[in-house]
Every structure is written in C-alpha cells, then in structure tokens.
Amino acid sequence: MSTEEHIPENPIDAAQTPQPDTENATTPVADASEVVETEASESAVAEVAVPAEQPDAPGEEAEAPTEVAAPEQAPVAEEQPPVPAPAPRPSAMPRPPAMPRPPASAIRPAAPAAPVAPSAVSTSDAAEWGRVTEDGTVSVREGEEWREVGQYPDGTPAEALAYFVRKFEDIAFKVNTLEQRVQAGGSGATDLAKQAQHLVVEVTDAAAVGDLANLRARLDALTGSLADASAAEAVEAKAAVDAAIAERTALVERSEAIAAQDLSSVQWKKVTEEMGALFDAWQNHQQNGPRLPKGAANQLWKRFRDARATVDRQRRAFYAELDETHKAARDRKSRLVERAEALAPKGVDGIPAYRGLLDEWKAAGRAGRKADDALWARFKAAGDALYSARAEQAAATEAESAPRIEERTALLEQAKAVADEANLTKARALLTRIQRQWDEVGRIFPREKERALDDRLRVIEQELKSREDVDWKRNNPETKARAGAMSEQLQQAIAKLEAERDAAEKSGNAKALKEATEALEARRAWLNALDG
Fold it and tell me: Which of 113, 130, 99 is nearest to 28 (CA)?
C-alpha cells in the first residue's frame, strides 16, 4: 500500500506537498479556538489509529486508519501548482471567525520578515527522526533519546512513519501560521501568547515524527518576543480602562449634579434632553469603549441609574401636577366658553358681560397649548359675533347720521364769516345763531365724526372770544379812568422835569442836567405806552 493511498480525508494533509513562500503568506490564519479544536481532534485520531490487539497502548482503540477522518481545518487560500504525485485536494472550508482588533500595542515588527514555510518531511528525514518496530510501534528521536508515540500495526513501516509525519506537519503548520501572524502584526500580543502556550503544550510529548525540538525552539522564541509586547499591551489596556473609568465617572457626576439641583424650577425640556444625551453617551461608551472591571462598572452604573431615576421621578411628578393644573384650567375655560356662547342672542347688549368673561379668561391659567388654542378659538368666535352685531349697528347709525353730518358741515362753512366780521357785536350774533342751529341738528354717530366737527366749531368760538377779550380791556370805563389819571400825572411830571432840565442847562450844572434828561425820557416812554 502506497503512502498516497493511505492519506485520511483531512485538509491538513495537503501540507505534505511543499508550498512556495508566497502561497504560505496568504494562508488563512487559524484562531485560538481552531488550535484547541485541532489539538483535541488529533488526539482522537491517534487513539483510533491503534488496533485493539495491542493492550499495552493505553487509551487507544482498534480501527482501520484508512477509515479515520480528521476534523477539517482552514483551507489553503489559493490553488496549488501541479506536482508529479498530487495528493487529494482539501475541500473548501468556511473561514475562521475574525479576531477582535487589538489595541495599539499589538506586535508590529520593524520590518516584515519572510514567512517560514512548513516543509514536508522526506522519507530520509522520516527515517532520521522516527523508527518503526516489527509490531508497528513508532518512536521519535528527541536528542539522543527515543520516545514511543504510538502503534500502526496494520500497515508497512513507511505508512506508519507517513502517518505520524503528517501529524508533525500539522503541528508545524500551526507554528508557521502563528509566526506569520506575529510577523504581520495587527493581532493582540496577549492572544498570540496564549496560542503560543497552547502550541507548546501540543508540541511537548506530541504523538508525531519530526524535528520537535526545532518546533519547541521556534515556539520559545515566539513566547519570549511576545512576553514584552504582552506586558506593554497590558499597561496600555490598563491605561485605557482608567481613562474609560474617568469618562464614565464624568458622566455619572454630571447626572448627579442635575439630580441634585432644585428640580421644581428647571426647564424640563432642557433637562430631559441633557439626560438623554448623557445616557446615549453612556451606551456608546459601553458598546465601543474598553470593558471595565465588573465591580467598578456596577458601582458607576448604580450611581448613574439612581441619578436618572431621581430626575425621572421628579419629571413624572412635575408633569402629573402640570396635567392636573391644565385639567382644572381647561374645565374653567370650557365653562367660560359656554357662557360666552350663551351671550349671542343679546347682541350688542352682551358686550359688557363678554368683557367680564374676558377678564376671567385671563385669570384662568394655561390649559396646554392645544387645548388653549381650541378653547380660545371658540371664545373669540363668540366675542366676534357680539362685536359684529355692534359693527352692524354702528354702520346703520352712521348711515342715519349722514344728513346731519352734511348739515353741520354746511354750518361750519357759514361760521367762517365770523372771523371776517370786524364788528364784534355782529360777529357774536352770527356765531350764536350758528350754535343754536348746530344743537338742533342732533347727535351724530359714530362719535369720532361728531367730535371732529365739534372741534372745528370750537376753534372759531375761541378766536372770537380772544377778540372780545382784547376789546373789553381796551374799552372798559374803569380801565380808561385809571389810564387818564396816570396820563395826567405823567404829563405833570414831564413838565416839571423839562423846567428842571432848562434850569440846569442855564446854570451849567452838568450833573443835574443829565439826571433831569434821563428822568424826562423815562416819563415820556411811560406816557407813550399808556396811550397805546
């Protein structure tokens, strides 16, 4: 039986065919769950491969190795070039789940190194690292010692070695994949270190034939390089957690500050929007930020939840009280609307009562915007009906007053002759006649037009009265008597001062002449003013 005829249906077996470096670089990366799953499945395969007749092989069952199918692994990304003796190609398998994005401290090599390709073990290499006894017991060389790895009694020694070589190549493929992930960067160092530890356990005492010491050395090198990166990543993760705790604490403190203020006098729309924004920020931080320790996260959430509960409780109480206030105002205004609508039959006579209802409406308080708008529309409609009736009445009255307006306008035209009459007695008689006819015309509506006509007549009356006052002062007997006595006194004083002036002029007394002249001029001025 040839080696190719004994290959189990396992996609990992394709690794026996040497692959070029460029192809290994695009091989899908298996995550930690695949490593553990493959490890368990290989142990199961090793147990099945040992026949039942060998009681000295603990934990192994007798079953034909050709009927064993190992669990499926990640497929090779691209088609392999043809080889002289091709092995069966693996079937397409689903890609492994995407690994979570690591923090910024993920391993990033200074320069990308060439990936290490897992090489197939040739027949001579298999003979160097493994041997098979006559009863099918297979051993692997580790240094100078040989260690039994299992039994393969139903096949040739070449088939037995090929089986355990394939198991070695499976492990080597995982080690190579991990090296590629470390070199490519972008993965968390902590996760890679855990996978390296799983592989160390898998390589130690592995039931495989090959250079296991080389695999352990490569894993030791990976573990050492990942240790420092894991420590740095842990420091960075702690810093991120501390920053996240500080951010959530700020959200908590702001929510507590809102809850601690006097909520009886706040603008609830603004407070509700701010608390909603804080809660959205909390959810976004919880979904997209780093995961916090359970104790700290629970403590912060309890404080935030209590603050929100306090604000929400006060908000519900405020709006419940507001609803009661609105309901009471709505009931009062509804009754006012009914009373206003009941005034419609009274027409103009209902306007005073409607004004009283309007004062009650202003004192009724708010009933909510929608209710206020609806009730006010009805209340205003009732008032509009009353004022419309008054407007109709005023229009009818104004139409009735049109002839009276024309009569008074004609009287005003006649009254213009009062100002042109020089004789005050005749002017007064003309104005008196016009005033008597003015009153006989009667009332005019609207009142604004009547007041405008009255104001025009009143101007004519004031002008005539002013002329009469001036004439009275001038022709009053008492005033004339007093003016005559004073004029006589002034004339006597003027005659005396003229004599004194002449005497001073003859005597050459300059001082007396000056005084007499000034006094004389003053008396003459008084006399001129008195005579008018």
Answer: 99
